[in-house]
Amino acid sequence: MPEKSQSNQQLDSMRVSVAPMMDWTDRHCRFLHRLLSRRTLLYTEMVTTGALVHGDVPRHLRFNAEEHPVALQLGGSEPADLAHCAKLGEEWGYDEINLNCGCPSERVQRGAFGACLMQEPQLVADCVKAMVDVVDVPVTVKHRIGIDKTESYAFVRDFVGTVREAGCNTFIVHARNAWLKGLSPKQNREVPPLRYALVHRLKHDFPDLRISINGGIADNAEVHSQLRLLDGVMIGREAYHNPWWLAEWDAGFFGETERELTREEVERQMCDYMARESAEYGTPWSNIARHMLGLRNGLPGARRWRQVWSDHKLKGTSPHEVMALAHAGEAVREAVN
């Protein structure tokens, strides 16, 4: 198991975070993001309590020590199971345990968790209390501003108020309603309108809580705008598709000295990591490289570079050799120089 981080920066790192995203923010993705930003809080994909209670715990909880600060997001609705899984997460070294009350997918609804839990705030409070009672790391909740056609501010206010009493001090709020029927998970990230004002109102009404906002935030100006009113900003798809943006975050959002970092240096370190993963776990480099395909977005030769790293005919080639092939084109060489 990775050693637990001894850093005191976890709360500060909540200032900007990368959202939990199914099939995307696995440990390989998080390793890349950590190369780009030392301070940003990183979240796992959602891990269900069933997967940990009945499945392969190391497969679901293994992560790289370099990833700290890193938070484990759990999906579930049984307080005892969540307490057990939160304890596992703490033992494995995670810096935070987060409860998913925001995912609208039908699969998650069949498990009676995710966004549908917002209909049962007392149950969420019971779940949170069960986790708070057994771990020393922060227990946080990620949720929506409403579900279906419920657009009343009172709905989300009362949800937060109830869960707060159970010992949760940090809420990450996706500023859209979740439609439990009629919209796909993708549409749920795009169709319900963003209502940032409701999140700002939560902070006004609960000034003692840490309130972070999620949803539709895709540039530095918007991050700074939200940080003037809230405690944190969580960024999702834009961080994944344009990972080089993260290289600006430590200086731009955390006040760190700007680092001299190049895309090529990050790519080389990813190649080293791919070789290490292959030797230790037999992980194909393509499972890792898929997360960095946006690293050269906007640069000359980026399309060819992506094609090389996506070419499964090269799966028997070492990662460092693939990198050399990816940079062999004249357009890419000009961009590097």
Automatic annotation (TrEMBL):
Record domain DUS-like FMN-binding: where: 18-317
Family of this protein: Belongs to the dus family.
Enzyme class label: oxidoreductase
EC number: 1.3.1.91
Binding site for FMN: 20-22, 73, 142, 174, 214-216, 236-237
UniProt-annotated catalytic positions: 103 (proton donor)
Site (Interacts with tRNA): 100, 186, 189, 303, 306
Native source organism of the sequence: Variovorax robiniae
Function: Catalyzes the synthesis of 5,6-dihydrouridine (D), a modified base found in the D-loop of most tRNAs, via the reduction of the C5-C6 double bond in target uridines. Specifically modifies U20 and U20a in tRNAs.
Keywords: Flavoprotein, FMN, NADP, Oxidoreductase, RNA-binding, tRNA processing, tRNA-binding
Keyword tRNA-binding recorded: yes
Known catalytic reactions: 5,6-dihydrouridine(20) in tRNA + NADP(+) = uridine(20) in tRNA + NADPH + H(+); 5,6-dihydrouridine(20a) in tRNA + NAD(+) = uridine(20a) in tRNA + NADH + H(+); 5,6-dihydrouridine(20a) in tRNA + NADP(+) = uridine(20a) in tRNA + NADPH + H(+); 5,6-dihydrouridine(20) in tRNA + NAD(+) = uridine(20) in tRNA + NADH + H(+)
HAMAP family xref list: DusA_subfam (MF_02041)
Required cofactor(s): FMN
Name of the featured protein: tRNA-dihydrouridine(20/20a) synthase
One Gene Ontology term of the molecular function aspect: tRNA-dihydrouridine20 synthase activity
